[in-house]
Amino acid sequence: MKHTKAILLILLLVGGVFSLSAKELTQAEQVEIWNSANDAYGKGAYDEAIVAYDSLLASGYESAKLYYNLGNAYFKNNRIGKAILNYNRALQLAPSSEDIQYNLQVANAHTVNRIDAVPEFFLTTWFRSLRTMFNSNGWAVLSLIFLGITLAGAMVYLLSGTVRGRKIGFSAGVIALILFIFAVFFSIRQKNLKVDSSEAIVMSSAAPVKSSPDSNGTDLFILNEGAKVTILDNLNGWYEIVIASGNKGWISGEYVEII
Question: Which of 118, 205, 229, 250 has the most CB atoms within 10 Å of its CB?
Fold first, then answer.
């Protein structure tokens, strides 16, 4: 077993990326690489762990735990930008995970930028907190449950022989229908955020934000590694971004990585 793990790690390190049919790994091979990556992490071999975790992502496998472990390996390797990037990706799959949220806070505390966010309308904050209680699949399951309750309420309303029964069926059906609509909306929203994220993390230690999508544009401000930005537009390899403080500008795509 030890020899097999060693061979796997050597294959992963050759060329820096394990591309070999990474897309054709069997479940057993994925488990073997996962265990090897965890072993490497436990021994402090963070570079090996990172390569192994990345090979699993290249094979098409992803999970909140995988992104979380990869973020931990990057953090231990003092690569804060990559750590924050992977913690954010983990949160997309497990938005209610306290462990991921805590480690993301710790990583953010190691960034140079301290951006004061523009005060947000309390209902916007409340709705986002509610939406991130579950991922897309979680909300989809809830929507089916609420749909079932809606149909059950309708049946009670139609078939009940008493006024009380009809009232209960009607009330339950209407409330469940409203919850069903919200669950579907949140499920779609969570899915869209994962598939087409408009947020990115700065990977450079000093990334200039310019007044125009051009290297000759005026420098407006500097963002450091780990800063989170929202993308508004893109043009010829440049992104128009806005940060939490409301400041806007253009940044070269080479300095950021989409969540």
Answer: 229
* 3-state SS, residue 240: strand
Could you tell me which of 239, 220, 212 has the C-alpha nearest to residue 228?
239
d(CA 46, CA 36): 12
Burial (CB < 10 A; 0-12, 13-18, 19+), residue 189, is: middle
Please report which residue ranges of 77-121 form alpha helices under DSSP H. 80-93, 98-109
Tokens of 211: 């007044």
Tell me the sheet residues that pair with 258: 200
Picking from 85-94, 172-181, 194-203, which range would have the lowest pLDDT averaged per residue? Answer: 194-203
Are the C-beta atoms of residues 243 and 256 closer than 8 Å to each other? no
- Please give the Cα distance from 51 to 192 (Å, whole number): 28
Sequence letter at residue 227: A
176 Cα distance to chain centroid = 29
Distance of alpha carbon 232 from alpha carbon 194, whole angstroms: 16
Vertex 44, ends 42 and 49: CA angle to 5°?
75
Phi/psi at 198 (5° precision): -105, 10
DSSP of 161-206: SSHHHHHHHHHHHHHHHHHHHHHHHHHHHHHHHHHS--EEEE-SSS
Looking at residue 4, what is its pLDDT?
43
The residue type at 226: G
Q: Are strands 207-210 and 199-202 parallel, antiparallel or unpaired?
A: unpaired
Q: Give backbone dihedrals phi and psi of 109, rounded to 5 degrees, phi first.
A: -70, -20
Please give the Cα distance from 12 to 21 (Å, whole number): 12
The two three-digit tokens of residue 76, written as one number: 């231990």
Reported as a single tens digit per residue, the pLDDT across 146-180 is 999 999 999 999 999 899 999 999 999 999 999 99
